[in-house]
Write a structure and sequence with these properties.
The structure is a single chain. By secondary structure, this protein is an alpha/beta fold. It folds into three domains: about 1-65 and about 85-115, no CATH class; about 65-80 and about 115-415, Glycogen Phosphorylase B (Rossmann fold); about 455-785, Glycogen Phosphorylase B (Rossmann fold, 3-Layer(aba) Sandwich), CATH 3.40.50.2000. Helices cover about 50% and strands about 15% of the residues. It contains 33 helices and 22 strands. α1 (about 10-25) packs across α4 and α6 (about 125-140) packs across α33 (about 780-790). The radius of gyration is 27 Å and the shape is globular. The chain binds ligand 26Y. It catalyses: [(1->4)-alpha-D-glucosyl](n) + phosphate = [(1->4)-alpha-D-glucosyl](n-1) + alpha-D-glucose 1-phosphate. Belongs to the glycogen phosphorylase family. InterPro entries: Glycg_phsphrylas, Glyco_trans_35, Pyridoxal_P_attach_site. Keywords: Carbohydrate metabolism, Glycosyltransferase, Pyridoxal phosphate, Transferase.
């Protein structure tokens, strides 16, 4: 491709441009005439990386020379999303990069579109880990993220007439300019009598507007080195290769289950693999700084992101005792002073428990240690609570019965100094239900830290027009101090400001409409109300309740009712083995097919299922949301974080009193939030009396009509059986209480319709949502972890190299 005469370029842009040209030759080994768009993307990324390497190297030097106390975040998932634009924004180089691209006859947008996203997570838990890494760097906290470098991330979702289809996500196929392999930092892990080697791959995590760049260290599995192979005879050679293949499957693929535990040998192997490598790495760092192993807990705080890394309790004990010669009692006080645990779910099906047999096969020494921890724990309990064997049985690390199991959540609680939930209600329910017995034993161990999201990715990167308006109206501080958004409040009644606000929102909706057209072929009207539910598909999140509501709307419109135009947008992946979730997608797709071609619905109702929801797609969706659907059964969504992203970008929420919705409503004000549904307490009371959906349904003609229409095959080409499992479930056990909340949901949706008709009032409410959401910054969450749990202080990094 011939490059035109370079446009005028700012000095830093000029430097980027030169670096891009250099990398085309020295990294891609190409001339301009052979370069593909992807080559240019790689060159831009490498040029940006060259710049941030200074921060990265200086940060490592600073942390090493100052022997800083360090927080480590252990997580089986990091749902990072693309790096390029985020790094540009953190470095303040977005404009310069755009100019450099232009000088090469390219656009920054096409570069950004080339970047495959590292989808190394399922949903909320993995994305939270990514927001937290970025906030730790921005707050200049010494921190390391530890996880697994999955060769294949979360599956790609395609939507066909039969709903979801999965394919693999080969995100590394064309290389990854953002990582550096560190072969010198690799560790052996013994699993099932065989050794696997974990090799470190490091990715820099830049802080915003600071010189700090922390490290995310992901482990890739390798077979032990080829030296052994040489000594094998011909027969053993093939066996050795097989072992190599087996070992390397360890970091091959992310398990695509969200909140559904499946006791799988490979998953337990993945857990010990990354946990052991990470802990060995910490011992290596300790040693390199001449710190004795008995000071482990002074050097490191280890945060367990749910129970996936809970084996760390046993593994840290093993390393201290077996490898470093520490006695049991000292090892135990070091371990419990080091580790803390975050719980992300109350759902019983997400609680990990490993069969003893499997555990014994794979990790015999760690099991021995768990038995010893348990014996000592039960001994102290027997003294404190004499004559209460049932209490001891409930608290035990081992679940008794025909198939004895190790309860990983119990191991995590016993081995931690602090256990936290992720929103007020969730943390309270943890203490009252799941961990009630533990809360009796150690009342002070439990606390709450409400989740947050990073305003850099979810506002500055995702919504540049809004960021520009904010900079103009209240200054640029909001990006580091999100509370500053408060300054918007007086502007919520300023006609001139509201007009600009409207303009920003229209832009975002037009952008999303273009994406919808590209991804689904459907034309939507950007002036209609964008009603959005994007998240993993799960019955407790009740996408089927939203779908029923859409069918009701369709019926009302067909009956001639006048309702304001809406575009109802769904997105999210279903676990490949979760039949009911896949059926919900199939229903939405079937509805979309009928509704979107019905002339009577033209200009009134559109239904969209956006395929392959991801961080990248989220960045396009969140800024364009008018109505944020947060409709989980009360008491089931631990926190939610999409709710925060939408509200932050000016969406109004329709939601239940669940997870962080409660705190969002408290902050934005009940006038600016559409509340409906039973509370967790009310549902508990209903459950005690025996719940049945039928009485609710019988009094609700519209709901019945909607269910009958679905059952008649209207959305399934006449097939009356297709949705039977879904409808039968709703009408018999209705485990997620859809019928109990449906009527009130409709009432709230009607309020949404009337509020939407008053455009001025809607805009004002939208501004107030953004203005009052500053609390939900992950900077605030991380500050709380650092102060209350990790006791880690900021260490500013100065440019030194
Ligand atoms: C056991 C295994 C299959 C498993 C895998 C993934 C279990 C759970 C998960 C994921 C859980 C998860 O994403 N939980 C979500 O965490 C978010 C961050 O705290 C919360 O906002 C959200 O409510 C919660 O569902």
């Amino acid at each position: 491709m011939a490059s035109p005469t370079p446009a005028p370029c700012p000095p830093k842009g000029q430097a980027l441009l030169e670096a891009m040209r250099r990398h085309l030759f020295s990294s891609q080994a190409k001339s301009a005439s052979l370069a593909t768009i992807h080559d240019h993307y790689v060159c831009l990324s490498l040029a940006v990386r060259d710049i941030l390497l200074t921060s990265w190297v200086d940060t490592a030097d600073t942390y090493t020379s100052q022997h800083v106390r360090t927080a480590t975040y252990m997580s089986a998932e990091f749902l990072l999303g693309p790096h390029l634009e985020n790094n540009l924004v953190s470095l303040g180089l977005r404009e310069e990069a755009a100019a450099a691209c232009e000088a090469l006859g390219l656009t920054l947008e096409e570069m950004l579109a080339e970047e495959p996203e590292p989808g190394l997570g399922n949903g909320g838990l993995g994305r939270l880990a990514a927001c937290f890494q970025e906030s730790m760097a921005t707050l200049e906290l010494p921190a390391i993220g530890y996880g697994i470098r999955y060769e294949f991330g979360i599956f790609r979702q395609q939507i066909g007439p039969n709903g979801q289809m999965e394919s693999t996500d080969p995100w590394l196929a064309r290389g990854n300019p953002w990582e550096v392999i560190r072969p010198e930092w690799s560790y052996p892990v013994l699993i099932g009598g065989q050794t696997v080697i974990g090799v470190a791959y490091d990715t820099p995590i830049l802080g915003y507007g600071v010189h700090t760049a922390n490290t995310l260290r992901l482990w890739s599995a390798q077979a032990p080195d080829a030296f052994d192979f040489a000594s094998f005879n011909a027969g053993d050679y093939t066996r050795a290769v097989l072992h190599k293949v087996q070992s390397e499957t360890l970091s091959k693929v992310l398990y695509p289950n969200d909140e559904l535990e499946q006791g799988k040998r490979l998953r337990l192997s993945q857990q010990i693999f990354f946990v052991s490598c990470s802990l060995q790495d910490m011992f290596r760092i300790l040693g390199s700084q001449g710190i004795p192993v008995t000071e482990f807990h002074r050097k490191f705080a280890v945060q367990l992101n749910d129970t996936h890394p809970a084996i760390a309790v046993a593994e840290l004990m093993r390393l201290l005792i077996d490898v470093h010669g520490v006695d049991w009692d000292t090892a135990w006080s070091i371990t419990t002073a080091t580790i803390s645990y975050t719980n992300h779910t109350l759902l019983p099906e997400a609680l990990e428990a490993w069969g003893l047999e499997l555990f014994q096969q794979l990790l015999p020494r760690q099991l021995q240690i768990i038995f010893e921890i348990n014996a000592r724990f039960l001994r102290t309990l027997r003294i404190r609570f004499p004559g209460q064997p049932e209490l001891l049985e409930r608290l035990s690390l081992i679940e008794e019965g025909p198939h004895r199991k190790v309860r990983m959540a119990h191991l995590a609680v016993v081995g931690s100094h602090t256990v936290n939930g992720v929103a007020e209600l969730h943390s309270r329910l943890l203490k009252e239900n799941l961990f009630a017995d533990f809360a009796r034993v150690w009342p002070d161990r439990f606390t709450n830290i409400t989740n947050g999201v990073t305003p850099r990715r979810w506002l500055a990167v995702a919504n540049p027009p809004l960021a520009a308006l904010l900079n103009d109206a209240i200054g640029t501080d909001w990006c580091r101090h999100l509370d500053q958004l408060r300054k918007l409040e007086p502007l919520a009644t300023d006609a001139g400001f509201l007009e600009r606000w409207q303009g920003v929102r229209e832009q975002a909706k037009e952008r999303l409409a273009a994406t919808i057209r590209q991804d689904t072929g459907v034309l939507v009207d950007p002036s209609s109300l964008f009603d959005v539910q994007v998240k993993r598909i799960h019955e407790y999140k009740r996408q089927h309740m939203a779908a029923l509501q859409v069918v009701e709307r369709y019926l009302r419109l067909r009956a001639g009712e006048d309702l304001p135009p809406r575009t109802v947008i769904f997105g999210g992946k279903a676990a490949p083995g979760y039949a009911m979730a896949k059926l919900i997608i199939r229903l939405i797709v079937g509805m979309a097919e009928i509704i979107n071609i019905d002339p009577a619905m033209d200009g009134r109702l559109r239904v969209i299922f956006l395929p392959n929801f991801s961080v990248k797609l989220g960045q396009k969706i969140y800024p364009a949301v008018d109505l944020s659907e947060q409709i989980s059964t009360a008491g089931m969504e631990a926190s939610g974080t999409g709710n925060m992203k939408m509200s932050l970008n000016g969406a109004l929420t329709i939601g239940t009193l669940d997870g962080a919705n409660i705190e969002i409503r408290e902050r934005v004000g009940d006038d600016n939030f559409f509340l409906f549904g039973h509370t967790a307490e009310q549902l508990a009371a209903i459950n005690r009396n025996g719940y049945h959906p039928m009485p609710w349904l019988e009094n609700d003609a519209l709901a019945k009509e909607a269910i009958d229409l679905i059952g008649s095959g209207h959305f399934s080409e006449g097939d009356r059986d297709l949705f039977h499992p879904l409808l039968a479930n709703l009408c018999s056990s209705d485990p997620f209480r859809v019928m109990a909340d449906l009527g009130d949901y409709r009432r709230a949706q009607n309020e949404v319709d009337s509020a939407w008709c008053d455009a001025g009032r809607w805009s004002m409410m939208s501004v107030l949502n953004t203005a009052r959401c500053g609390f939900f910054s992950s900077d605030r969450s991380i500050q709380e972890y650092a102060d209350r749990i990790w006791k880690v202080a900021p260490v500013p990094v100065n440019a030194c190299s």
